[in-house]
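Anyone else keep sequences and structure tokens together like this?

Example one:
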Amino acid sequence: MYAGKRQRRSWAELSEEQQQWLPDGSAIKLGVLLSNQKARRDRLDAEQRAAFAELGYAWAVEQPKRG
């Protein structure tokens, strides 16, 4: 994304290659971040799960399956 031309994207539309540049100059791949959070959702605390649920992620509301 360019600073002068910001577009709001749906979180559901992110590919694993889309990057977000951080103020320190590093970049994170947003799709990879979300995929990892979903895979490890049983380790998220209630506040973290609530934040993802607020963004519209149904998996954050579901009870994690252990086993």
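And example two:
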Amino acid sequence: MTAESAEDVPLADHPDVNPTRGQWYDRSLAYLEDEVADHREALVADVDGQVLDLGCGTGTAFEQFPEEAEVHALDPERDYLAWATTKTDGVHLAAGQAESLPYSADTFDAVVCSQVLCSVDDVPTALDEIARVLCSDGRLHFLEHVHSDGVAGHVESVLTPLWKRVADGCRLNRDTLSRIEASPLTVTDVERLSLGRVPPTTHIRGAARQVDD
């Protein structure tokens, strides 16, 4: 399946979806959005060509992509995607899992993951899939929260079982950077960020590229 043929999702007024879940999601994560918005804007500032917004949720990042980018967006939650349709008329939306991307190999010039890999069940498989759909000179752009050091990290580990249940599978104590480094991609730059005082506080922002054969 190519980027052009991935199935679009129902509109927000479709009887089989509940877009109010997306509205609630936006309200519940407003505190985090205030912390990460500027960093995500910097993350996507130079993407162009065919771009995949992986785990797009309710489409919070749509307005931050450059106009020259042809943006495709994927998320497993159809209710969130239905709400995302109210925020764009130019992004190609599709429902699917990160571990089994519904796109052909060598499709995208860039894949963007913003607050996504914390909730993916099988991160190595998802990273293999990202590498598969990236073009030979494509890049993964990531902004992810990670396990903090010290007391904050201990608090995150204690909170994670409950947090995972109420926050769509999000793991506060995941060491995402080590998983990216162990993937078929090569990390080219990474910055560690401390954002706010409410979990999740520690983030990484960076990029990884395809490894040349």
